């Protein structure tokens, strides 16, 4: 039986594990020695009872704490409203080259250079890093556009509850998309211009240093109104693309899970994203082409939206679907990364 002396008392310890109590207060028996021998280290019954009560109280509170943690309902978890913007920004770092190629395909009026020749041409003339030209503007766009629309949709669906119909989801997604499209217009405009810059002759390039430089220069050189140039087409597109991306994604995922064949895993998320992405891209591609051309145009180049439509229509129906392949790839990859992060990055409600 190990013992030690402390302040004239001999302390003997019986360290015998007896559940959680043994971790905190091992049992002690004391025999007094020295000048304080009159006490003989014999604790009274009341002291022993107090000590036992203290030990039991400690154990009870610790056990209650662990039990309360174990009883937390882990099913009641929600994602933060800003997760959509963060996930979109992360996805943009991967998909930016495809987005740049899409802009190049959409802005060409003459010639029909495909995506592969376009890629080879850019790398040969500008280097591989040119595919990431305008990345800062793309991040600015996602942090404003995607954060707004995903945030509004996330908060809205939480308020509406689980028993939400597809029409309610679509209406909420449309409203969220309209808000996001308008807020994200300045970043989108600078993004399109920076991406298209490398295609222009050196004397015609705008040479924005980064996204914020582009925003301030457009405001200073062309005015506030021009900073929101293309807001009408950008907002309209955002309404439909958000309905396609979010509402169609939720509906597709719900239908896949109801079959009993699919489970809540990466495959189901990918298939849902593929369905939603293809739907959103097909519906919004003509608006995306018009938006890109309007934002990239010089002041006064197009007198009205009708002028822009008739100018693009000279290419035939296919002119309104320029850049469809890289765009659908971007949307599917972005959707997959967004919803995987939104599904897994949970916090307790």
TrEMBL record:
<dbReference type="InterPro" id="IPR018108">
    <property type="entry name" value="MCP_transmembrane"/>
</dbReference>
<keyword id="KW-1133">Transmembrane helix</keyword>
<protein>
    <recommendedName>
        <fullName>Mitochondrial dicarboxylate carrier</fullName>
    </recommendedName>
</protein>
<feature type="repeat" description="Solcar">
    <location>
        <begin position="164"/>
        <end position="255"/>
    </location>
</feature>
<keyword id="KW-0472">Membrane</keyword>
<dbReference type="Pfam" id="PF00153">
    <property type="entry name" value="Mito_carr"/>
</dbReference>
<keyword id="KW-0812">Transmembrane</keyword>
<keyword id="KW-0677">Repeat</keyword>
<dbReference type="InterPro" id="IPR050391">
    <property type="entry name" value="Mito_Metabolite_Transporter"/>
</dbReference>
<feature type="repeat" description="Solcar">
    <location>
        <begin position="264"/>
        <end position="348"/>
    </location>
</feature>
<dbReference type="GO" id="GO:0016020">
    <property type="term" value="C:membrane"/>
</dbReference>
<feature type="repeat" description="Solcar">
    <location>
        <begin position="75"/>
        <end position="159"/>
    </location>
</feature>
<comment type="similarity">
    <text>Belongs to the mitochondrial carrier (TC 2.A.29) family.</text>
</comment>
<keyword id="KW-0813">Transport</keyword>
